[in-house]
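G., before I forget:
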Amino acid sequence: MKIAIMGSGGIGGYFGAQLAQKTDSDVWFVARGDHLRAIRENGLQIKSDVGGTVVFPAQATDDPKEIGPVDIVVLAVKLYSVNEAVEQCRPLVSEETGVISFQNGIGTEERIDEILGVGHAIGGIAYAPLAIEAPGIIRHTGNLARLTVGEMSGARSERLEAFVSACRKAEIETAMSESITRELWEKFVFLASFSGITCLTRQPIGFTQQEQSAKELFEQALKEAVAVADAEAVKLEDGFVGKTMAFAMGMGASAQSSMLTDLQNGRPLENAWLSGKIVELARKHKICTPAHKAFYAAMKPFETGSD
Amino acid sequence: MKIAIMGSGGIGGYFGAQLAQKTDSDVWFVARGDHLRAIRENGLQIKSDVGGTVVFPAQATDDPKEIGPVDIVVLAVKLYSVNEAVEQCRPLVSEETGVISFQNGIGTEERIDEILGVGHAIGGIAYAPLAIEAPGIIRHTGNLARLTVGEMSGARSERLEAFVSACRKAEIETAMSESITRELWEKFVFLASFSGITCLTRQPIGFTQQEQSAKELFEQALKEAVAVADAEAVKLEDGFVGKTMAFAMGMGASAQSSMLTDLQNGRPLENAWLSGKIVELARKHKICTPAHKAFYAAMKPFETGSD
């Protein structure tokens, strides 16, 4: 099958490289600037503590028109680039094309269907600590690299089954979900709260694990976000807050959100799409969300980065 | 009258200098380290945009025993130094000595009476943007310099009337209050919230004036602190939250809390005595204070400064 990776950063670059290397899929990388130049000259490199791979030559371009219609678009850009990236997808999309969204937040699927027409959006979640280390080089920390995907309707589809079977052939642990909306929300609720508390304190999760005031604030943030999910008629799994607290309190102390890494590096923040989104939805439903309001206000001055 | 200034930083140094220069009071400055050395060598200098003064020689020491009993101790140290400073006051205190506390928080008066014996503590509030600029030099920003003092009982006393009349002779605007506990709490409620929002956002108040999310969080913080005051049986003036919001929204955009200045300079923070105190009292009364919990958690990692 023909696959376009729109946004060849950590997530897109890594999973695209696995597919290019281990399957006969026709994989195209869309990238820009120094990263694109490096991929063209030296290939796309994946580095990890246990080894690495190089895809060379890699089919890479900054112009989707060069690629033409594909079966699947893997949309893996930051939330603040979603609108622009989805616009860029037009030449990649035929009637049957599925666009799988791998973002941190919620709502990208609606944007895809708004911009490209109803029926293209597929929900996706990537669990993997990946980032661009240098132009052309993706760093994989640890060995977690897992995908969950699902048609928004919950139905099975030929296009998605073909993609999942390509992923599995590429030795990517991939689950197909019949309740992707719920799973997207669960990741969103966790991530907004986790990003919030680590950015608020400017510390990895270890600080929150030790400091009662931060721990209580984190739990409050989870509860607020669950209340918003309820109001949006999304039912999370039973005991979600308790399970998520247990998970977060058991993480390695040095774990931190990518938003904190972005903050530390003066890069733009996904703030408006995480706690900001919760505050916005809460306002609509007249729900009180002081913890997310604090997370949002705390990062607001740094949202556009220090460039 | 004989006056000891315990802690000759911005507040103590400035008001002590006014008293030393413009009255016949026997004023002693207690200071330490480089600041003490500079005062001994060059006197205590007050600099402001509209001029300045020098008190030279200034009676300065780091050993209260050299001073002996005084009529009034002006206690003007940071909240985290209160216990140590009150202990140091012992040689300054005879049965009649009044110790006027000029701190940002609440509870210092209780500590004074606990350590030195009941009846010494006098409540005090200083409204003045003052700070040590360099050893021996106090910087006054703007021209606000006002004191409010009051016996904790609300009664008039000879010792306090003598002090107030000396202050007025020194051209310091000084009010004597019969409800100092209420006024201390009003300043505390404002300052904990103002310090909280400016430190959380790491921006002067202008940011909060412009940004709705921060403004709402600030108002929420005021309401939480008022609820705590209520629970502590302290009745603030009617319409306190509205008046304080109006005041804060009308401040110069560049105004910021001294805690933010301390944060920016890597100095220890009064966090535990401001939002931390509110969170602590709220827990006792089972009141929900998520805004102050967020303020507190946000500053907790930086509390001890970066020395």
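The first strand of chain A starts at residue 2 and ends at 6. The interface with chain B takes residues 197, 200-203, 207, 211, 213-214, 216-217, 220, 279, 290-291, 293-298, 300-301 of chain A (CB under 8 Å).

More on Monday.
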